[in-house]
From TrEMBL:
Top-level taxon: Bacteria
Lineage, broadest ranks: Bacteria, Pseudomonadati, Pseudomonadota, Gammaproteobacteria, Vibrionales
Residues that bind Mn(2+) 2: 260, 262
Cofactor note: Binds 2 magnesium or manganese ions per subunit.
Protein name: Probable alpha-L-glutamate ligase
C-alpha cells in the first residue's frame, strides 16, 4: 500500500514510529507537510500538489495535524477524501473533536460522564456561571488551548471571577469546569483504535501542578482500567467519529469523566509506559479497513 502521513515534522517521535511501522510491513510511505500542499478543487479530477509534485495513488492517509494548523490541515485532508483516499481519522471528525465546546455538547447529548461545564460570553453572567458548575475551585480553559496551555485552576470565587473577566476582556473564548479534587492531579489516557482500547496509561501531574500533561512535566505509568472506563473511552471516540483517539478520563466519585478526546494522540508516552507497538496497531488497522474504504462520516463533510 501507499500511505501518506500528514505531519509537519518527520523527526517527531510519533511520525518516526509510523514511518518505521509502515516500512517494516512493506508499505511505501511519504511524509507530507499539509502547509506545503496546494489544491486544485474541481468536480472532475480534484488534485493536491506538494512542492511542485502531484500527489496521487495514495491508498490511505494518516493525519497528524497540529492544533495550530487545524483549518488548513483538515482542508488538505478533506481534499484527499474527495480523491478517494482512506483517512485514518476523517476531517469532519477531527474538526469536531478540536472544538472543545462542541465536543462537550456532543458527549453530553449521549449521556457520557464529564465535568460540569459552563460557557458564557458576558462578564455580568460570571457569578451565576460559577454557581452552575458548583462554585470554586474551578478550572478555566481557553477553547483554543492545547497541551495544557491556557488552563487555569482558580481556587477561590474571587480568583475565578478575576481570571474569567481577564480572559473575556481579551475577547478569548473560554469554558469553566468543575474541579475534580479526588482525581489528585492525575488522568487516564485511553488509546482507542477501531472501537477498542488497546493501551492505557496514568498521567500524573508534577508536584504542585494540577495539569497532568506530559508536556507540562507530568509522568506516565501503566494502569489497569475498569470495564466502565473502557466503555466510556470507546463511546467517546465513537461519538466524535474517530477511529484513532486518545481519550482522557478523570477518576471521580461518580465514575469516569471525559476531559478531552484527542484526534492526534502522541505515541511516545503510551508506547514507553505500556511497551506496546501502538504505531504498528495503527498500520494494522489501515490494512484491514483501507481496502473497503469504509468511513464513518462519508458525505457529511
Amino acid at each position: 500500500m501507499k500511505i501518506g502521513i500528514l505531519s509537519r515534522n518527520a523527526n517527531l517521535y510519533s511520525t518516526r514510529r509510523l514511518i518505521e511501522s509502515c516500512e517494516s510491513r512493506g508499505h511505501e510511505v511519504k511524509v507530507i507537510d499539509a502547509l506545503r500542499c496546494y489544491m486544485n478543487i474541481n468536480s472532475e479530477k480534484p488534485q493536491i500538489h506538494f512542492k511542485g509534485e502531484e500527489l496521487s495513488d495514495f491508498d490511505a492517509i494518516i493525519p497528524r495535524i497540529g492544533a495550530s494548523v487545524t483549518f488548513y490541515g483538515t482542508a488538505v485532508l478533506r481534499q484527499f477524501e474527495m480523491m478517494g483516499v482512506y483517512p485514518v481519522n476523517e476531517s469532519v471528525a477531527i474538526t469536531r473533536s478540536r472544538d472543545k465546546l462542541r465536543s462537550m455538547q456532543l458527549l453530553s447529548r449521549k449521556g457520557i460522564g464529564m465535568p460540569i461545564t459552563g460557557f458564557a460570553s458576558k462578564p455580568d453572567d460570571i457569578k451565576d456561571l460559577l454557581q452552575m458548575v458548583g462554585g470554586a475551585p474551578v478550572v478555566i480553559k481557553l477553547l483554543e488551548g492545547t497541551q495544557g496551555i491556557g488552563v487555569v485552576l482558580a481556587e477561590t470565587k474571587k480568583a475565578a471571577e478575576s481570571v474569567v473577566e481577564a480572559f473575556m476582556g481579551l475577547k478569548a473564548n473560554i469554558m469553566v469546569q468543575e474541579f475534580i479534587k479526588e482525581a489528585g492531579g492525575a488522568d487516564i489516557r485511553c488509546f482507542v483504535i477501531g472501537e477498542k482500547v488497546i493501551a492505557a496509561m496514568k498521567r500524573q501531574g508534577a508536584k504542585g501542578e494540577f495539569r497532568s500533561n506530559l508536556h507540562r512535566g507530568g509522568s506516565a505509568s501503566l494502569v489497569k482500567i475498569t470495564p466502565q472506563e473502557r466503555r466510556t473511552a470507546v463511546a467517546a471516540a465513537k461519538i466524535m467519529g474517530l477511529n484513532v483517539a486518545g481519550v482522557d478520563l478523570l477518576r471521580s466519585e461518580r465514575g469516569p469523566l471525559v476531559m478531552e478526546v484527542n484526534s492526534s494522540p502522541g505515541l511516545e508516552g503510551i508506547e514507553t509506559s505500556t511497551g506496546k507497538d501502538v504505531a504498528g496497531m495503527i498500520v494494522e488497522f489501515i490494512e484491514k479497513n483501507a481496502p473497503s474504504k469504509r468511513t464513518r462520516t462519508r458525505g457529511q463533510g
